[in-house]
Amino acid sequence: MVQQQLIDTVRVNARKTDAFDIFNLKHYIGPNPYLETGALVFDFALTGHLSPRPIEEYISAISDRYPHLRDETSESYGHLFARTVSEVGKLDMGLHLNRLNLKQHPNYFTIAAQSVHFRTSRAVVYCVWDWFEAITQDEDFELDDRISRLQDTFRYSVYGGPTVYALLRTAQEKKIPAFYLWDEGLMQYGYGKKLIRGVATTFDCDSHLDSDFTTRKDDCKAFLTTLGFPVPKGNVVVSLGEAKAVAERIGYPVAVKPVAGHKGIGVTADVQNSQELEFAFSRALKGIPEEQAIAIIVEKSIKGADFRLLCVNGRFVAATERRPASVTGDNYSTIAELIKRENRKPARLDTPTSAMSKIQSDDAMEMFLSEQGLSLNSVIETGRIVYLRKVANLSAGGLSIDATPTVHPDNIILAQDIAQHFRLTCLGIDAISPTLSQSWKSGNFGILEINAAPGIFMHLNPAVGESVDVPSHILETFFKSGADARIPTIAFNRISVQELQETIDHILLQQPDWTIGAVCRQAVFVNRSEKILNKDYNTNIQNLLRNPKLDLLIAEYPEDVLERDGMFYQGNNIVVLDNPTETEMVLTRDLLEDSTVVVKEGNNISIRHKGLIEQYTLGESEPFTRVYLKEIGTIL
Asked: What is the DSSP letter of 485?
């Protein structure tokens, strides 16, 4: 039965012209009473001010954008609102936010939608609310524009970079804990002594010396030359005069790029003469970071396609061909119009999950068009492909093509031989060659540079070809499974400071070399040493789990903490409940394999382990601590 009656409730957010209201918004960073993941939770109701239209009209309007919702049965406005929030929350880029929970109360609904970034999720809810009100008022609603702004909000969040998001999503699929460390500006994967921290594809186990070395392209080039690897001839210069002298000596065409740089910034390839060299040198100067001295490489430009070979943990895993941005003529549109049309394609949404970025227009592009006798106002004949840049820069709209299956064994060995010389988890090798299917030993193959923090989305989601699951290769370097990323955790719904200390002592007697982190509402301990208690409860949990020495965590999660903050982490090895409330039973929801649950109801004890349940009654003077301390031995 579709709920259509109005609800007589005082509202806090709705206007008198609104049919619906949203209130009591709350964000949980982890498991909570509503979902086992991070979530935005809010209440939804009818205002009583304005009667909504029949629910079928909302379904019809929304299913024009999300056709599959037409085939679902929406029992009420609340159900439809929740499903719409879930769909809009994927931001038209396939975000993994699929979890949803709906609880119906007499006068309102509580909706919980999976969330990663609070600002984005909150904006999604308000967007859907505005959409429902626009349908009510029979007004136009610019959903595309709103979603575009939502995409920008997420994209510029700490989770919105393509590499970070890909690793975060893969970590969740593999049940590897992952969260952002705001103070450090790092992502953390795993807990305690199992943790690894990093920025994109750079991790704390990487050698900072090796990482720095790869940014010094001149030194790296000399090093690769000493190893006998194919590197284009050239020199480092500090002035335009020196650049011209080197170019005359090695012969045009040349490539020009700053020694310190990344992402193709300031790089110009296939420079044909001194006039082009002046432009290329000026462009390279602009690409040098402010704190860096002038140092520019001028080297022989090799004809061929641009390739990225990626090694993870010293092993070759993927190769991508990168082609410059291009447009195809239709005999009536200008190049500028073709670019605008190309940028409107779904593949160029320029989001963390889109295969291509939007084509960027700048002086370098206009100069290259000029070299071809063209301009942005030129009309191109039907079928003619016009390349817009010399450099295949993906961030400027270039095309990525998976080349992994075509790589010659000699080229795989070459990549791995280079990677073996660096203590780096990920290493990207940029090379130029007519094809990777021929051995580098046959000639016409050049290593342009190596990268210590390579992007991975070109391999995971190429514009052309098959996906290579690079995030899995990276995370499996550290964790063979989700279990390998965790330390044992014990959760209580209530425990006193004295009982907490007794539990720590009991464990240390059996594992004297362990570092144990423990927290209750009154205190934080690392082994027997009491630490400063943060007023934000889950910050205490995070501070313990980010400790790289920690072997085990003990955490109290009573009802008020669960309702107010939720849990920071997911899953437990042992759960000990002393006369639990319904909310506190949430602690038994996300159990790990072979977990043990101990529940005390009055003097009755229930112990559940491996599908077996043991029940008995405590003796008159028998302490509850004796029961759960015995069970803790199963994880020691």
From this structure: G
